[in-house]
Amino acid sequence: MRDKSFASPDDIDLMALWATLRRAMPKLLVLTLAAGILTYVVLSMMAPRYTSQAEMAIVAKGTANPFSNPNNPTAGLDTLPSRMDKEAVNTHVHALLSSNLAARVIKELQLDSRREFNASLGPVDSLDTVMRLVGLGGSRPGISDEDEALKEFFSRLDVYSPAESRVINIQFTSVDPGLAAKVANTVAETYREELAQATVAETDTVQKSLAPRIEALSEEVSKAESEVANFRAKAGLLRSGAQQTPLNEQQLGDIASELTRASATTSAAQTRAKAARQLLSKRAPEAIPEVQASPIIQNLIQQRVTVERDLLKLSATMKPAHPVIRQLNADLNAVKQQISAEVANLVAGLDREAFIAAEQEAAIRKRLDAVKIEVADSGADNVELRQLEARAAAKRGELERLQAQFEANRARADGGVVPVEAQIIALARPSSVPVFPRKVPYTVLVMVGTLLLGTAIVITVGLAAGARKGDESECRLREEIAVVAASDPAPVEASPPPLPRPNPETAEAADLAPAFRSPDALAEHLVHSAGTARTGQRTILASHADPATTVAVVRDAANAMTEAGAQTLIIDGSFDGDGLADAFQMSRAPGFTELISGAVTFSDVVRSLPGSGVHIIACGAVNASDENVDADQLNMILDALDEAYDQILVVARAQAARAIFETIQGRFDIAIIMDNAETRRTAFSEHGTFLGFTVSDIELLRYETEVMEGRGGKAEKRWNQALRAASIA
């Protein structure tokens, strides 16, 4: 179903709004000028305010933390990110805005004795004087001087940190530029001093807690080290050397080293003896290294060489039996025997040396096994000793750390060198340019705002006046329709003869939309569809049939709905004064087009069909283009008619009906296509469309007619005669 809410009949008249604004412009200009003058006067009565700014930077304290280990170069570095992050900087910002810091600065600079911070001492400027005269200034009752000074102090103090930085800006505003700079600097210096005092107090607290801890830990260390010494002496686990190695372990190491050397000596001796015996068995004793190194054997070899040379020389002149030759052979054999004896003695010596080395190795190995057994037996004692030593070493390390920390903290406290996170990087200086009030910019701003606000008020009043005018027009239309609908027009004395109708049949279902062939059946369906609705049912009928057939069907259906108790109105929706208007014989009388343009009233255009209670509005005598039809006016007319009639039937040819349907955006309850056998298949192009528009929530119907005679047929003539009589009446 169509939306029952009334369409807005208001149309913004830009020319009327411009005229209204033009008439009000002189007053707006005077008001704007007055506002500007008043603003300038008020600003001139105010004392100028000056702002000064000090800057602080949040830096790393390094190892100044009294809880950190002074012997560890990396101690405290892990806390730097948490002490330098955004949240830490914001903490400093809020600390600078604390009440305790503000009260300390107020007391130090005696700000509560100045009028600017104590209203009870008198006005600050001319505006304050005027405000006091009218009862809007001065100190508030029930508030102390300290609280009022704090309130005024915080209203002039601004502390913030710029984005992406660790800098904190401290701004203070005052009527005295020197005081503004002094307060900003005092806030920065006082806060830094409080941080230093807090660090000293923190260090003192740590020192007081460290002293008894160091004393108790010293006793524990002495006791632990005594236990270690006693247990070492008892268990025989004495130590020596720079590494303090236990004696049994040190002895084990020494014997192991000695065994290694003995094994190497034995192996070398056995290798030499074996090699000598092999060379001796091969009758090459001269190749034995020890033989080559022996001076006795070398002398014997030299003697053999001498005897062999002499024997060879004399053998050339003497016979073997010669006594000299025999003596030389005897000497040569004696030397060779001596050489063999010496080599044998030397090889035997090598064997003895290898045997002795093996015996020494065996003895050392026995000693090593004995020491191993001794070390193994002392394993449990060593474990216990290590535990005692570890406990004593831990206590000793903790004592040394606390002592170093205690001494470092005492040195910092005694020297007065306390690293502070907040460092002043720029002191505030008195400003010569006031930040408030800026008379000219503020005056111009107030004037522009006043002009814009006044213009908006004038435009709003103009729009409201136009809306009231539209509401009055709509009320007037409703009153006119009510009067016309309630009137009982006099019936005509003679009714026109009945016109031939299309062959009535019961409504049948078609492939596209329900189809009717009887006006009575169509009327019954329309009345049934309306039900008990509070507003009228609005139906549009687009006809593809000839005017006579259309007029006959519409008349009979309207009469049937009237007889069923529904107050019915027919509207000829032709804008050009042609078509159905000719068949109704009302085209030259004022009608629908004049009503839309506002040239006539409802009482001028609403008529009654002869012999029935059906009302009709003709198409009108003025040709009007569908493009110039005011949609809001047409909606307002139809909405007003909904309140007076039960059934409103807008009848037009297909083209005119399409224009009306498009103008009011399909705000109908039922849409009907009247066609005949020739146009039956072109009435609805597809399911859910009407005259080329896709529709929803609108009931689509079709009325089928038989092809009748042309426009000059008998039925049309008889109907024209009846309508002519109605127009005369």
Automatic annotation (TrEMBL):
Membrane topology classification: Multi-pass membrane protein
InterPro entries xrefs: Bact_polysacc_biosynth/exp, LPS_length_determ_N, P-loop_NTPase
Sorted UniProt keywords: Cell membrane, Membrane, Transmembrane, Transmembrane helix
SUPFAM superfamilies for the chain: P-loop containing nucleoside triphosphate hydrolases (SSF52540)
Chief place of localization: membrane
Localization in the cell: Cell membrane
Membrane spanning residue stretches: 28-47, 442-467
Keyword match Electron transport: no
PANTHER family assigned: FERRIC ENTEROBACTIN TRANSPORT PROTEIN FEPE, TYROSINE-PROTEIN KINASE
Protein name: Uncharacterized protein involved in exopolysaccharide biosynthesis
UniProt source species: Filomicrobium insigne
